[in-house]
């Protein structure tokens, strides 16, 4: 009897550890891929690669080792970062059902926001995406231009009021954030979050802003979430988040409650207006043309495929989250480079002046085509999102063993060429957005330089020859495949409009304070020496 008990006790750990041991053995095929050193068996390079101040290490890792990078993780695990266009094409096309968001990622989003696009996986994602795709078409975007113009005018009005004297230093970060939140609030949800000049914003806008930095604090524990969700009932987990003495977790719970309550309130009001019909809808902020109103009307005729109230609430919350900081930090990056490059700033301002004079219209009357017909503005936008993507990496996990062919072989650490990657199931494969956007073999020797002029001439043949699987301008900024950014056209439009209004109204020069970039969900600006957790971007402004 004792022997049987001992045997069982010996077998249990083996059963638990077997999948991990098998994965470690399979991972050994990747051992000669170049990458940063591990700090220790327990830590790998995880602490340096994730966390608020990881940006310099991330940039070094993603830009220095070539198109495939091996990143040692905790307890001997390995992640890959891939920027080889052929391998990425195979991931996004042939293996589109194999490489999905990791479960810890979608489970986090689901726990906080409910079932939005980034919370669902596999077939459920395909169904939701099919329902949402049409409302993101350029057809609807064209109708939103007057709203974006109005919000951009509010932005320049609020900033103009803050300028006292010929040159004033302002922290514009919060105002750019409010511009993007208000733009997407009015056009996507048909709701307003109040004046762009209000000092503190609403509970909802604060909750959305605090999500990213709080998530970065909880990141090391996220891999446990799928297991917790499988093991314990949801009400118990929800109760625990409210009582455990863990400030970041409790904060996340408060964020979740606040976002859910507001989205629910907006949705119920919208449904009520829809029931009352045309007159009532026309008086709403979005005049019944906002994406949620369109979606609700589509939903009525969708029969059994109609989205539930929880689905719609999840979509609303996640759309706002995905739309706000990503776009505002891209606008901030553009203003940062323009402040350092007065020549480019003057050239852009001249193009805008010429266009308003030629057409006899002010920017407030510009439509979609008028904005896309400004080559230098377009070049500034493209070059900024190429050089400074809001996400340097995008996560995917291999759900089964796969082989990814490489377009260009890499040299292994043993000096031998590697032509394909044998990727075991369960391996994290990060899409190396930054690496691809700055790949010198694709973009040329000046790939690390912000040079909008590259977009005014024919791009080098190497760009077309690389066949980058991209949704915009051969860059990986919005990723690609069935999980690519659904709102990229809206983001680009908001950027064009904000930059046009800002550069025509103000001149920008760098602050003497040192600005650096850290991870707060997306890559966000901060001031060296400041203790603030919020994004900060001081810039010297004068009225034109
Ligand atoms: C410059 C601004 C933006 C950037 C750089 C950006 C980038 C991205 C990236 C990289 C992804 C893919 C993430 C992944 O594959 O893991 C993504 C997904 C997404 N984005 Fe954006 N985004 C921006 C603006 C927007 C806007 C304005 C909206 C909505 C109006 C939006 C809505 C979404 C949604 C809903 C997803 C999830 C798509 C899915 O899982 O099917 N984004 N975005």
TrEMBL record:
Pfam families: p450. Keywords: Heme, Iron, Metal-binding, Monooxygenase, Oxidoreductase. Heme binds at residue 485. Coiled coil: none annotated. It comes from the Eukaryota. Pathway: Secondary metabolite biosynthesis. GO terms for molecular function: heme binding; iron ion binding; monooxygenase activity; oxidoreductase activity, acting on paired donors, with incorporation or reduction of molecular oxygen. Its cofactor is heme. Belongs to the cytochrome P450 family. This is Cytochrome P450. It comes from Lentinus tigrinus ALCF2SS1-6.
């Amino acid at each position: 009897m004792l022997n049987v008990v001992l045997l069982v006790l010996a077998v249990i750990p083996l059963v638990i550890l077997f999948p991990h041991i098998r994965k470690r053995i399979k991972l050994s095929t990747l051992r000669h891929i170049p990458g940063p050193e591990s700090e220790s068996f327990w830590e790998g390079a995880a602490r340096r690669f994730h966390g608020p101040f990881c940006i310099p290490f991330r940039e070094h890792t993603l830009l220095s080792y070539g198109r495939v990078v091996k990143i040692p993780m905790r307890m001997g695990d390995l992640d890959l970062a891939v920027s080889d266009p052929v391998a990425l094409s195979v991931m996004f096309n042939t293996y589109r059902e194999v490489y999905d968001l990791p479960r810890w990622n979608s489970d986090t989003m689901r726990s906080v926001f409910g079932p939005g696009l980034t919370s669902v996986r596999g077939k459920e994602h395909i169904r939701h995406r099919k329902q949402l795709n049409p409302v993101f078409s350029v057809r609807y975007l064209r109708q939103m231009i007057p709203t974006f113009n109005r919000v951009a005018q509010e932005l320049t009005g609020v900033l103009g009021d803050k300028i006292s004297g010929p040159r004033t230093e302002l922290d514009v970060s919060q105002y750019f954030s409010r511009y993007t939140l208000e733009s997407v609030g009015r056009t996507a949800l048909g709701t307003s979050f109040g004046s762009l000049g209000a000092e503190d914003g609403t509970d909802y806008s604060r909750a959305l802003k605090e999500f990213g930095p709080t998530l970065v604090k909880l990141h090391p524990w996220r891999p446990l979430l799928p297991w917790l969700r499988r093991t314990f009932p949801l009400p118990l987990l929800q109760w625990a988040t409210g009582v455990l003495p863990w400030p970041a977790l409790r904060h996340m719970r408060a964020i979740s409650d606040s976002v859910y309550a507001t989205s629910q309130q907006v949705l119920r009001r919208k449904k009520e207006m829809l029931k009352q019909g045309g007159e009532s809808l026309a008086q709403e902020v979005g005049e019944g043309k906002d994406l949620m109103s369109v979606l609700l009307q589509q939903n009525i005729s969708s029969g059994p495929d109609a989205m539930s109230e929880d689905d719609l609430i999840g979509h609303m919350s996640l759309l706002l989250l995905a739309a706000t900081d990503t776009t505002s930090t891209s606008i901030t990056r553009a203003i940062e480079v323009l402040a350092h490059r007065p020549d480019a700033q003057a050239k852009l301002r001249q193009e805008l002046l010429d266009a308003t004079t030629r057409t006899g219209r002010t920017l407030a009357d510009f439509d979609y085509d008028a904005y896309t017909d400004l080559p230098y503005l377009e070049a500034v936008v493209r070059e900024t999102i190429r050089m400074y993507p809001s996400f340097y990496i995008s996560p995917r996990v291999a759900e089964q063993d796969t082989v990814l062919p490489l377009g260009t072989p890499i040299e292994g650490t043993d000096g031998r060429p590697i032509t394909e990657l044998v990727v075991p199931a369960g391996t994290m494969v990060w899409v190396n957005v930054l690496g691809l956007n700055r790949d010198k073999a694709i973009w040329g020797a000046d790939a690390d330089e912000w040079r909008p002029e590259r977009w005014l001439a024919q791009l080098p043949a190497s760009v077309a020859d690389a066949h980058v699987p991209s949704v915009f301008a051969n860059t990986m900024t919005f990723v690609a495949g069935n999980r690519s950014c659904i709102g990229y056209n809206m983001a680009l439009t908001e950027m064009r409009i904000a930059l046009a209004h800002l550069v025509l109204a103000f001149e920008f020069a760098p602050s003497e304070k040192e600005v650096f970039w850290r991870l707060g969900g997306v890559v966000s600006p901060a001031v060296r020496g400041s203790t603030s957790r919020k994004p900060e971007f001081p810039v010297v402004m004068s009225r034109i």
